[in-house]
Specification:
single chain; 599 residues; alpha+beta; eight-stranded antiparallel sheet; 18 helices; 21 strands; elongated
Amino acid sequence: MPIPDAPFVPPSIGDRTTWEAIAKNPDKAAWLADLDKRLPDIPATAPIPTASEYLAAKRSNDRKVVDGFWQKTRTSLGNLAAHRLLKGIDPNDVDDRLLNWIYAYTYEPSWVVSAHLAKNDLQLSGAGQLDLAGCEQAGSLAELAQSLKPWIDTQTQTLVQSILNEVDRRVVTPAETDKREFWMKTDGTPINNWAGVCAGSILAACETMAAFGMPRPKTRERMIEILRAYFQYGFTEAGECDEGIGYWNYGMDFAFIGLSRLPRQEIEAKFDLKRIERVASYPERVHLVGSTFFVGNDGSPTVSPSLAGVPIIAEWTDSAFLKWWCGQAKPTGLRTFTQLLRYLTSTMQFPSSQSAGPRHEPNRYLDNQQAAIFQRDSTRGLFTFTFTGGTNAEQHNHNDLGTFQVFLGEKPIIPDLGAPIYQQDFFGAARYTKWIVAMSSGHCCPQINGIEQRAGKEAAGKLLAWDEKTGELALELTSAYPDTAGLTKWTRVGHVPADGSRAIIDDEFVLKADGEIIHRIWFVNEPKVTDGNIFEADGIVITIDAKPEKTEVIPFKANDERLMLRIFPAEHVLYRIDMTYRAKANAPLKVQTVITVAP
């Protein structure tokens, strides 16, 4: 890996050569122009959340106020700091607005978001603040202090040290020994994006504190150990991210923000570079077309890379795909100063053509996710069919064994609904009872005798066959359902012939006793229904061989309280087709679904 010899160091406001070059960099011109437009709308100081706003998640299931403050409002601090860094120190411009924002954030009662606090209560004074938001804040305030110290010191002699004290008290020192946080596991237990975000942010804070004569070597080594565990156990054995490409982007972004602070020799000595390269290749392995990716669970199929850490990954791994992906992206979502600083100081050059991207093999398979991606050219654009098994114990899991998706170009026809706008109860007992979006009824999965799929590692697909040449994946999926469903056998075979833009799904069910099976298919837009077994929508024709006893077309608004979808406008209506079949005891019921691109 071509890792730079010297680690990244946040450039000081006194380094006018660097900041003047950034101001003149044509690659940053669009962002700088937008900055000038955003600045007048930033208030005089940060609107720190009140106690009642923190308690909203507890009182009404509403996370949006404090989540929004973390994910959107904090962006203003980075914008104000960047504006000051670009202008330099001006005795005639004291910039009290920036000073007030830094002061407000430094002494904010809690850096943690309410959804991550025990019982959604208020932050306990003196407790560590080791969630995503708290760790991001620690890294950002530390590096902000490092870059802005000469200017801050013209205003006050105590604020820089106060920032470091708060970073240390709230995050860095607690991170040395805390054993409660799940993201700190290094014993081989699966961990998720939190480990990359939190450990990467704290590692950046540790390097800044050391530069100020406040080294925290034990915390530093622990964060390095956690990042090693993240690369090893935050992904599957084959380096897949079952959380989805969006969470790959989030976790890897901050992991590399932290790694960028280390010298090359230390990275080479302490990290498995082959493993990192494998994990870094995941976006290419699940890329479909343009900015659309295969995704399941709590994810969105459309993702733009963060132009903070992902360009670093692209450079270090020399990945042509990641470089192309970065070249398509706009500098949005840079909510923390650590992210913004790396974007502004980067001089990496990426392809800028707005092409659909590289073409992939027509048949691809993800070993650990048991997912197949099939792509064929058609008269209506690139036809993509995905079909997946896996388990119902994945990171950010949805109960979705056997589900499938269809795209024409980047347009989803048969969608995966993705994650909802998070509400507090989505991460509790209601996940698989209230939230259709996470249940098998929110996917193209059958219902057996009125029973949905179960969660847990026992619900696991078995690979019967994968034939890359013929384009066929066969899965045995019986264990997706509890014994109470009375299911003896369910196999689903997905086949995409090489000679046409069509997908064939063959289902075989066996029940212990006479019963009912509902075959389900979701549509982004309302389908035209003919004879109860032929459906047309958005250039796709679906024919069901084995006519159902009953066919229902059920509309769902995207803002239905059981869906709360992120990736569709609130008033958009999606449709689910429910086809009911009667099955005899111990007699195989075979249903074939043929999905064809219309002429």
